[in-house]
User: What shape does this take?
Amino acid sequence: MVSASPIILALDRPTEAEVWDLIDRLEPSQCRLKVGKELFTACGPSLVRRLVSRGYDVFLDLKYHDIPHTVAQACRQAADLGVWMVDVHASGGRAMLDAARRALDEGPHSPLLIAITLLTSLCAEDLQDIGWQGEPQDVVLRLAHLAADCDLDGVVCSAQEVALLRARLPATFCLVTPGIRLPTDQSDDQQRIVTPQAAMAAGSSYLVVGRPITRSKDPLVALQHFNSLCRQ
Ligand code: C5P
Assistant: This one.
């Protein structure tokens, strides 16, 4: 089922039991799901297949970053799980992005392929530490252009950079934005945070939301609240 909601719920839970406790209260029409490194490492591909067979669009967020052949093969395996979206690090470079694109285009089922530009947990000081030139938004723009050049379907970026990217990239380019918080939420380890309303107004295609929903007293109510804010 294709969800009308722009919310991608980050299932950052360590056990399958906790995941099903949450999923059993949701419907595929209310959100898409993101399986990241913690859950995938704990529960593996069988959980992903079960979520897909329940009718959810699943974003397999393993942020591949390796030599081109390895990333291409990993993308192929992800596609075979039936997921809706996979991601790679744009900083893996052109050859890696091209190899991932080709691997998915050659398969029978091609999930959306998106690239991480800059993690939303990183700030200008972190860029200096790792030796990347420019302000965060320069880096994001550079890597987003690289991803678009390599025919990827979109990028993950902070909602703070969405307006800039919308103005310079094709209208169909998908912008997936984590770091979403309500003014009353804790920012946790996110640095460049934005409210759901502001992210949608700026032109985000999908909002990745984790702890503000999964750690709330009633996750279903929190999800409904986020969905209503997105429609405002
Ligand atoms: O709990 P929270 O809403 O911060 O979760 C955000 C999710 O988005 C996490 O699963 C994190 O791995 C992911 N993510 C991110 N920043 C990126 C890419 C993915 O926070 N640039």
Remarks:
- Residues 7-227 form a domain with the TIM Barrel fold (CATH 3.20.20.70).
- The two ends are 24 Å apart (CA to CA).
